[in-house]
Amino acid sequence: MMRTHRGIDTINGDIASVFADGVGFGELAVIRNPDGEESLAQVVRLAGRRVALQVFSGTRGLSVDASVRFLGRPMQLRVSQQLLGRVFDGSGRPRDGKPSLDEGEPVELAGPSVNPIRRRLPGRLVETGIPMIDVFNPLVESQKLPIFSEAGEPHAQLLARIGLQARADVIVFGGIGLPFDEAMFFQQTFEEGGVMGRTVMFVNTAADPVVERLLVPDLALAAAEQLAVAGQRVLVLLTDMTAFADALKEIAVSMEQIPSNLGFPGSLYSDLAARYEKAVDLPGAGSITILGVTTMPGGDVTHPVPDNTGYITEGQYYLTDGCISPFGSLSRLGQLVVGKATRDDHGPLMNAMIRLYARAQEAHKKLAMGFMSTETDARHLRYGELFRRHFMDLEVELPLLQALDLGWRTLAECYEPQQVGIKREVLQARWPGEVTP
């Protein structure tokens, strides 16, 4: 039942406070100015009869004489196949010039995550065509992984490539506080790559209201949940989760909450976990896999946002110097698919290649310090050069089996079989050429 109240008590930032009875946390409201202009808002705090409303379009121009009509329900999104191919803003309104959705059951945002005992154990590979992911840090269905990046790193290009190449039924993209040109880059890339027909985008740009940045992950994940229940393998791409956390901080300041580390609210961990924990593999249905870009201010991995994220997620892709780092990156669920859902030589080859690349880095440091280069050092340096060119370059696109074969050829080009530290039976099965006794 809708209830209307007259007059606003206080306005602080994007938070408007009123006195009202019978209002629920998370409930939607419509604020109507005397001139007839309307704004959508949501209840974010209750203190007795005092109700704090987060105004999605901002409070600029809002009159204290405005009326507030409570709708008796939280924010909802209509989810159906009509979503695919569409672009919406941070409040779920079309921004592609097409009509609003008229099909599908309304779904409440920010519902509970699936009970862990109801989930299927992860064990299916999401192939991306990017060797540094597929070979060395495999992405697994229902996994939640951040991409830790610094300013200037090509995280947008990496995320777009994953969206284009990943073997998923549906791509759900959430853009949070993006520069306009970056938002257009994702849309044009998906359109030109031919995947827009199975993609839905929720985009909040840097020029849009800050408070809408809080809704983008919830909109994207609400859509993903319903599509996964319908049996589809959904890949959710979110960027930038640091902008989401900054919006949380701004709202918390407006509500005069006691700040925690660097001014972020004490609920930061729970706020991030509530989104990432939506990743799930549903028995008898589809799955939700989440990749979220987390930019690190000043490259500081101990910043509260990447620091809290690292405790929630199952590893990370660490983007540095224009490449996915072979040392800083980790997929904790990779062990569930390597050699099981992939070829039996995957594990030994992966471990040997990373170990030898570490030796190549050591040889490079020796050379830089003026030490004489030995024949072994020269082998390592040659291997390091080929490894970067064949696997670390983000422009490289290879199916997993071809990447594994290339790995064997790269080893054979630089080393003798006995020098790579792989068991003899594996070498005999896979080494390019004869393995002598």
Observed structural traits:
Thrombin, subunit H; Rossmann fold; ten-stranded mixed beta sheet; alpha/beta; 23% strand; 11 helices; 437 residues
Number of strands: 19
Reported by name, the CATH topology of the largest domain is Rossmann fold
* Proportion of helical residues: 25-40%
Total number of helices = 11
- CATH class division of the largest domain: Alpha Beta
- CATH architecture assignment name of the largest domain: 3-Layer(aba) Sandwich
Mean of residue pLDDT values: 91
Q: What structural class is derived from the secondary structure elements?
A: alpha/beta
Write down the secondary-structure element order.
EEEEEEEEEEHEHEHEHEHHEEHEEEHHHH
Radius of gyration (Å): 25 Å
Largest sheet: 10 strands, mixed
**Distance, first to last CA:** 83 Å
The percentage of residues in β strands lies in 15-25%
What is the total domain count? 3
**Approximate shape:** elongated
Q: Spans of 5+ residues with little confidence (pLDDT < 50)?
A: none
